Fold:
Amino acid sequence: MILDNQVAIVTGGATGIGKAIALALAAEGADIVVADLNKKIATKTAAEIEALGVKSIAVVCDVTKPWMVKKLGATAIEKLGRLDILINNAGVAGGPGWYEHARSREEDWIACYEVNVKGIFNCIEAIAPIMKEQRSGKIVNLASIAGREGRPALPHYSASKAAVINYTQSLAADMAPYDINVNAVCPGLLWTPMWGQVGQRYAQTNPDYAEMPAREVFDKMVADIIPLGREQTPEDIGDCVVFLVSEDARNITGQAINVDGGAFMR
Ligand SMILES: NC(=O)c1ccc[n+]([C@@H]2O[C@H](COP(=O)([O-])OP(=O)(O)OC[C@H]3O[C@@H](n4cnc5c(N)ncnc54)[C@H](O)[C@@H]3O)[C@@H](O)[C@H]2O)c1
Structure:
């Protein structure tokens, strides 16, 4: 298997896209640290990963807390022996209850910046020195197609994901001399708990989707903006991440790859 004897940390790895990424990496032989806010769900996911025949540990970690992230790198090395891959997947679409409001509030901007952008900075500060020291490593940041173009329904989220794409380029240049690849993935439309919230916001703010339940908003948007005409799945994102951390992608760095059925052709 292509990731045998490697160890990966997946932030926000307990559910949704992060869980699918963790399972995809494990299916290729990697041992996995599932880092998430919720110990119970993270532990359940780690057990599912171990059923694939690799090692997995669940670690409670809030990426906005530098001291928790610092412990994460040390725990990976102590319990699993090494650290090769970091997937910065943890993300939020706003502050608590953001989707119940028609407009972005200050707390939505702060939450998106703290988790989606500064959360990656915290993980990089803690983990990049380990990778630089060993002169190898692969990092993938979860951005979004919302980072490709402004989204009036959720400007706070859209701006944070544009920052992730830009920050990925800075990191890739910084880490290239150490043979560390840093890339981003921009998922398109995936029906996860996060999109349940996003759909509610669109129904409130966009006349094309007025009064529709979130799932109907989602289905209409898939039909409206995705040339291939189908939604993306967490497994699609897992497959792309496996490629980006594999040797096949050794000459790819500083890129943001859209996995969006052609919604953005750039
Ligand atoms: N669902 C989509 O359509 C979509 C599209 C584009 C990009 N994304 C991005 O993909 C990533 C995963 O999204 P998802 O749809 O699976 O979301 P989700 O809400 O279903 O899952 C997010 C996970 O991150 C964890 N998390 C949240 N805040 C955290 C923190 N401070 N520290 C550690 N863990 C934290 C949550 O507990 C949860 O397990 C996010 O970065 C999101 O912005 C999602």
In short: The chain is about 45% helix and 15% strand. The chain has a mean pLDDT of 97. Residues 11-12, 14-18, 36-38, 61-64, 89-92, 115, 119, 142, 144, 187, 189-190, 192-195 surround nicotinamide-adenine-dinucleotide (CB under 6 Å). The two ends are 32 Å apart (CA to CA).
